[in-house]
Amino acid sequence: MEKKQGFFSALKDEVVRGLSPARSRAKSPARMGSPITGLMRRRKHHVANPEPMISRSGSLRPVMEGPDPDGGELGESKRVGSGLGQWMKGQLCRAPSVVASAGAYKRSDLRLLLGVMGAPLAPVHVSTTDPLPHLSIKNTPIETSSAQYILQQYTAASGGQKLQNSIRNAYAMGKVKMVASEFETATRVLKNRNAARAAESGGFVLWQMNPDMWYVELAAGGSKVHAGCNGKIVWRHTPWLGAHTAKGPVRPLRRALQGLDPRTTANMFADSRCIGEKKVNGEDCFILKLCADPQTLKARSEGPAEIIRHVLFGYFSQKTGLLIHMEDSHLTRIQSNGGDAVYWETTINSFLDDYRPVEGIMIAHSGRSIVTLFRFGEMAMSHTKTRMEEAWTIEEVAFNVPGLSVDCFIPPADLRSGSISEACELPHEERGKGSIAAIAHRAKVAALEKPHDNGMDNMIWKM
Description:
Blueprint: H1 2-17, H2 29-32, H3 35-39, E1 46-47, E2 67-68, E3 72-73, H4 82-93, H5 102-117, H6 142-157, H7 161-165, E4 169-185, E5 189-191, H8 195-198, E6 200-209, E7 213-220, E8 223-230, E9 234-238, E10 242-246, H9 254-257, H10 262-268, E11 273-280, E12 283-291, H11 294-300, E13 305-317, E14 323-335, E15 341-358, E16 361-376, E17 384-399, E18 419-420, H12 437-449, E19 456-461
Helix pairs in contact: 4-5
């Protein structure tokens, strides 16, 4: 018990120094007295398996954004998404006997993992202040009214609307493990046989506050990604792109939908349709489908990178009413000058487990995600598929944290005015040299300025 208490004591100090929303901002006198310092000294409401998040020495390992001990810098790449392209090339030419290059491949894997799974956003804008639609049957399609009924059951199963409306802010801390497990081309499939040892371990903290403010910081493998929203803009910071705003409207963090924020989850599916039923790991579920509207897709597109569609599926248990599986897929079309279009489809399947009440709110305390990047369309037999996996556990959850204020969600002082499209994490080599000058230029400036699961079967579709 003493070790556990010592760990959390060290963790509080570390959160104040590095894992709080006060990080990465100008150290002006007005911001030095962040409310995070005071609020993290309070005792948290809920602790589950309080083991060291990163190390067993009683304190967190320092997180690096600069030079890597293997001899390079995560921020050294000047080309947009070049890490993903180098990783793919490396998978094709990697030999087991090549030990000297292991550090470089590891950095490419880490950039790919953090870039894709670090802080993805939900498909559309929703606000926690928007009420859920009233259940209506008259002059309403059966798919829509069924979805409204399912969401009412979900809200009741998650703790009830009255209790959820009483939550002003929330905090969650957890551990993650990430690994790039498989790479496939038209002629060969390369699997990571040492996935357990190759996995990058780390942790994350998530802060949320009404209305529509959030901040997340995820550290793994000696590097980190942090992102946030002050209710007006969404921004993200990575070691290779620096701090930049996200294209499109303000949207929730997808990680919050993974069993941590039932109210935002219900609002996200408010305009969805019930399209059928399906068994997920042997449990009967209703399927709700939500599609991003054309205006949102257009706002998220930039230059030659066009977001064609983004669809979110929610699988709600017929037994418990809770969300146990979530799948979203978005398709990006990249048109090069004088060449064929290349398509990238990103699919994230998340499975939510171990629901337990925290102050009356049902929270999923563990889960896993499977991410697939599928590239096709350039020419016949030229597709590639990359599979990544993440497993997470929730260690601590608290609601209505005293002292949390809007000052904790101020964007970084070095935030650039220009936004960057989601396609910035896709390989630069596949876009055509000269067709993405604007996006590439932003990435260069950033680098210079800031040194379907087997357990799912028996689908029943309703016509």
